[in-house]
Amino acid sequence: MRSAADHRTARWTVCRPGVPRLPPGAFCSTLRSVHDKKPRVETRGLRVHAAHRVPSRTALCMFLLLMAARIPATAIACPFCGTVGQSLSQRRDEAAVVAVAEAEGGAAADATGFLSQRFRIDQLLRGNADAAVVGATVTARVVGPATGTAVLFGTESAGGAAAAPRSTWSAVTADETLLGYVATAPAISQPAAERLRWFATRLEHRDPAIAADAYTEFGLATFADVCTAAAALDPARLRAWVQEPGIDARRRGLYGLLLGAVAATSEDAAVSRDCIDALHQAVEAPADDFRAGFDGLLAGVLVAEGEHGLDFLRGRGLFGRDARPLDQRHLLAALRFAGESLTDTIPRERIIAATATLLVSPAVAADATVDLARYQAWDKVADVSRLWDSFGTNDPLVRRAVAGYLTACPLPTATHELERIRSQHPDLLKQACDALALPAAR
């Protein structure tokens, strides 16, 4: 069992799942490889311009950058939370003025196409009184038509060389409970883990706006901060949420991951065991075709159990040829998270081997190939090159992934496989390389 201190070295992925963290200067070196003008050189009897011979390291960066577009964008922090925006405390602390106001009239699209509505300012909560006068009427952007009381956030932007700064307003419908929440939420300047302890008790709050905002706060947090604050989470509530059919499916992935963090950091063995049992039951539960949040549940198992969790998922048949394609997409996302954040409890070699196992699945073979290149798992050359003759026959995405992996791989066996493919399918290989902006010859 990992301690909280062990977890502080881990983190959410801070980019989209599957997108590599490039080494410093890698992108710039890619650009330089395109623009540098060098004389022709002779290579294996082929006259190839040096600018077209991309080094393996740069080819890898180019390949990963281009293939990353296949993977949906997610939150900056939590990779299983979907897209989350700013939290209310962020909007409050970044605003020049925060005010309580009353809606007046209906909402309508403004000149820029955004829905806007007029509000009368009743009270200033913070900010310069000169920027907003009590009793004044302002126009604020809204998500939907507002009625009654709202909280307004005003930001100032430059008005041009001679013009005064302009105020831009946005509004959120708010009752007394939400107003109190906005006023008392910890400042964004406070330590992140301390803030999460406060928001932990507001997850699934009876006020939907507060529940959604607490979810946003956790979705934006780092994995290290979540683990530091894990003791503030209620294990019983998390266990219920991951198994409750009526829970927002988008949130189930986060709650699965939080449950794994509680299991891994708790000093109470019984609590850890109960959390793990709940995760197992949630993974084993019957599911429909759309299984939102399943990737977070799988990642929660890996966080909670490390290598034993990987064995559990394998025992459930998720790596098999007969597994549901959507489940294997979720599994690959969980493995990416493990490769980024859990190598202290799951050896990198096991994560690579598990990813390579998914090459047999037509639904994820291309993405698994990209991940193997990201891990620089060059010993999988034979497995990857075979994809060209199997799934690559009818799938251009697989062909691109294979071409990218073999082009980036520095081993002679990769060069040999590229030559073999070129001799058999020269046009298809050129199309694949052109699509990735990779050289057609190495």
Structure description:
With 442 residues, the protein is of the alpha+beta class. It has a domain at 88-184: OB fold (Dihydrolipoamide Acetyltransferase, E2P) (Beta Barrel). It has helices at 4-7, 26-35, 56-67, 88-94, 176-184, 192-200, 208-220, 223-228, 235-243, 249-265, 269-284, 294-305, 307-315, 325-341, 348-357, 365-374, 381-389, 396-408, 412-424, 426-435; strands at 40-43, 46-49, 97-109, 115-127, 137-141, 149-157, 166-173. The strands form two sheets. The protein has a five-stranded mixed β-barrel. Helix 3 runs antiparallel to helix 18 and helix 10 (249-265) packs antiparallel against helix 11. The two termini are 47 Å apart. Mean pLDDT is 82; it is low at 1-55, 72-76 and 160-164.
In short:
This protein has helices spanning 4-7, 26-35, 56-67, 88-94, 176-184, 192-200, 208-220, 223-228, 235-243, 249-265, 269-284, 294-305, 307-315, 325-341, 348-357, 365-374, 381-389, 396-408, 412-424, 426-435, and strands spanning 40-43, 46-49, 97-109, 115-127, 137-141, 149-157, 166-173.
Order of helices and strands: HHEEHHEEEEEHHHHHHHHHHHHHHHH
- Count of individual helical segments: 20
CATH topology of the domain at 88-184: OB fold (Dihydrolipoamide Acetyltransferase, E2P)
Query: What number is the mean pLDDT?
Result: 82
What composes the largest sheet?
5 strands, mixed, barrel
Number of strands: 7
Q: Output the structural class.
A: alpha+beta
Strand content: 5-15%
Ends distance: 47 Å
What is the molecular shape? globular
Helical content stands at: 40-55%
Strand order of the largest sheet: 3-4-5-7-6
Unreliable parts: 1-55, 72-76, 160-164
Rounded Rg: 26 Å
